[in-house]
Amino acid sequence: MSAANPFPIRHIARAVVLDPHDRILLIAYASVHTRGADGEPLRFWFMPGGGLEPGEDHVTACRRELGEEIGRDDVAIGPLVAVCDGPFHLFRQSRDARERYFLVRLPDDRVDTSRLAETEDNPVIGTRWWPLDELRASGARVEPAGLADLAAEVAAGTIPAQPRVLTWQDP
Q1: What per-residue string of b and e applies to 20-49 under the rule 16 or more CB within 10 Å gives b?
Q2: Distance CA 26, CA 46 (A)
């Protein structure tokens, strides 16, 4: 934290999880801070992942988080495909999020989300395997901005030479 940035820095590892049909797994949350046009808590979709614990690197944290949130700590963590840094306000605790996104391809679509809600600081609405074309056309709030396009590119086999820089949407 500093006078210019009043939020605590949180280093985070997340996974762009794709199944064999190139669907992306996303988690739906209800924001505790922001309301949608209907007056209800803003609903947004996010990737599995979370904060690094002391002594962890991003890959280790990503694997642990996949085990905790979707019951899949048995998969290879692929390349770093994107980053998103900056203040994020939709979770209970606003933070200066320093997020790193790794590609993870599952051999099937089996997930176990029975422990997901106990680790989150916002209400979890559910999870969904999204076909990428449907996600891009849905109008659903996906964080960070540009995630659906990035997922479509990596699903097609295009891995960026340098991690893509994504940004948070305005609350």
Answers
A1: eeebbbbbbbbbeeeeeeeeebbbbbbbbb
A2: 5
Q: Which fold has domain 12-165?
A: Nucleoside Triphosphate Pyrophosphohydrolase (3.90.79)
DSSP 35: E
Measured from the Cβ of residue 113, the count of other Cβ atoms closer than 10 Å reads 15
Residue-range domain boundaries for the chain: 12-165
Per the DSSP assignment, residues forming a β-bridge with 14 are 49, 101
- CA neighbours within 13 Å on the CB side: how many for 16? 29
Decide if pLDDT at 2 tops 60. no
Q: How confident is the model over 123-145, as pLDDT tens digits?
A: 888 999 999 999 999 999 999 99
